[in-house]
Design brief:
Layout (H helix, E strand, L loop, with lengths): L1 H22 L2 E4 L1 H11 L1 H22 L4 E9 L5 E8 L8 E4 L2 E4 L9 E8 L3 E12 L1 H69 L4 H36 L6 E4 L3 H4 L2 H7 L10 H21 L5 E13 L12 E8 L7 H67 L5 H36 L6
Parallel strand pairs: 1-8
Antiparallel strand pairs: 2-7, 3-6, 4-5, 7-9, 9-10
Helix pairs in contact: 2-4, 3-4, 4-5, 4-8, 4-10, 7-9, 8-9, 9-10
Length: 466
């Protein structure tokens, strides 16, 4: 009993140690490392890779139906001592044979004697037997050939979907990674502003006690400090949510702590974003358009599949059999050891069903072509719009960055004047409100650039991987 308690104690200590280790796991990741980690561990991306393998397995299933099929079998029969008897009459018993040969096997014949006319009879023993057989067959139809082509298209579509999922995972990681950096910067800005406001509040309260300021001035500043503290707490909660989202995108342990090592200035590459707006757009590089192209090929093969109903079915087989009798006397064997056969089947008349099927497949193909053309036109229009959106976002970012810099300098100037009594409470309030608004506008401008850039990258698709 004491041994069991000791073992349980060790197990519990081990589990606690493992949990503590998991909680203390720290992942220091640059943007590129985070994207690569997500590619290797993201569950949705793993499922996309499994879909590729599933499509390949389906193709081999179709190919296997076109290859020879071989099967072996063993059959056992026991007639329970039954003998096959032949009887008849003859007046010349001495001229009757004493044996008979069937299928290369000789069977003895016995004739009971009687006076005058003789009664003749023979018996063949039906001994237990076993037959071992091997059959090889093959059947080929036009539908099987086209089916293999359809499977090849399915594999290509699965590969495109996997590439698209990988690209989307990378862009989602980049968006979340950048959002975290922006929120961390927001927290720093709010924290700095809060400290400044708290210092102003402390100075104002001292002035109130000295009789140099009114209590209403301190009360207004106190409300502003409380409001800024609330904004800071809300931003921290949003930051925590973004970290949780990043952990899920990475496919990492839910208790892992992620530390971002790439600074916002490097992630937010304005020069690269501006260059992106000048790149040429080729609709064939878009992953959705590539899937539409494969869907077109799929529809064309469906038309060919419908025509395959007019083609013949060709089949052939070979069978080897070896029959063995169990007993002292051989049995009656009529089973040939080797057999081959072939068959050609051609459908002649199905009351117009096949032609209707072909017509339906052609209509589906035309619908696919129309959808593809519509998507192509839409992607070109969307590219122009997203390019303009990114240009506007870059311009807005530059303006808001300058505005934030000016607002900071104004706030520092006003607070310094307020400290020496050269600025009013209203000026301080307006300056603090302006800097909070400028910080919020700057954050929104940064997010707008990131979102516009990611949207354009998703549209350009495979071109960015070349």
């Amino acid at each position: 009993m004491k041994t069991i308690k000791t073992i349980l104690t060790l197990v519990l200590v081990s589990l606690v140690g493992t949990t503590a280790h998991a909680q203390s796991t720290v992942m220091r990741l640059s943007l590129e490392e985070a994207q690569q980690y997500a590619v290797e561990h993201n569950y949705a991306l793993q499922n996309a890779a499994l879909n590729v393998k599933k499509a390949e397995a389906t193709r081999w299933q179709t190919l296997s139906t076109m290859l020879p099929q071989v099967k072996a079998g063993f059959d056992y029969q026991n007639m329970c001592g039954y003998e096959m008897n032949f009887g008849g009459r003859s007046s010349m018993g001495s001229m009757l044979p004493d044996s008979i040969t069937i299928g290369g096997t000789t069977f003895p014949i016995s004739f009971p004697s009687s006076g005058g006319t003789e009664e003749t009879s023979t018996s063949i023993p039906m001994n237990p037997s076993g037959t071992f057989s091997i059959t090889a067959s093959i059947a080929l139809t036009g539908a099987q050939i086209v089916g293999t082509m359809l499977n090849n298209i399915a594999i290509e579509m699965a590969n495109i979907s996997h590439s698209q999922s990988e690209f989307t995972t990378r862009t989602n990681v980049k968006t979340t990674y950048t959002s975290i950096l922006i929120m961390e910067q927001t927290v720093k800005l709010l924290d700095t502003s809060l400290m400044n406001m708290q210092q102003l509040l402390a100075t104002t309260e001292a002035s109130v006690q000295a009789g140099a300021s009114e209590q209403i001035t301190a009360d207004k500043l106190n409300v502003q400090v409380a409001s800024m503290q609330n904004s800071l707490n809300s931003t921290k909660r949003t930051l925590k949510m973004l970290y949780n989202s990043l952990v899920l995108l990475l496919g990492a342990d839910v208790d892992a702590k992620v530390v971002l090592t790439t600074p916002l200035e490097k992630v937010l590459d304005i020069d690269y974003a501006a260059q992106l707006t000048m790149n040429d757009f080729h609709v064939e590089d878009n992953y959705d358009y590539q899937l539409l192209q494969q869907n077109e090929q799929l529809s064309r093969k469906q038309v060919a599949m419908a025509w395959m109903d007019f083609t013949p079915t060709i089949s052939a087989y070979y069978q080897y059999s070896d029959k063995t009798y169990f007993g002292k006397d051989a049995g009656f064997n009529m089973t040939p050891p080797n057999m081959i056969g072939a068959n050609v089947s051609l459908p002649l008349f199905q009351s117009g069903t096949r032609m209707a099927k072909i017509k339906s497949a052609k209509i589906d193909l035309q619908e696919t072509l129309n959808s593809k053309q519509q998507a192509e036109d839409g992607l070109k229009v969307q590219y122009n719009q997203l390019r303009y959106d990114l240009v506007s976002a870059i311009e807005g970012y530059q303006i808001q960055r300058q505005n934030l810099d000016v607002t900071r300098r104004v706030f520092r100037n006003v607070t310094e004047k307020y400290t020496y009594g050269h600025a009013s409470n209203l000026e301080v309030t307006n300056a603090s409100t302006d800097i909070i608004t400028a910080q919020s506008n700057y954050i929104q401008a940064v997010l707008a650039v990131v979102q516009a850039q990611v949207a354009l990258e998703n549209l350009m698709g495979a071109a960015l991987n070349k």
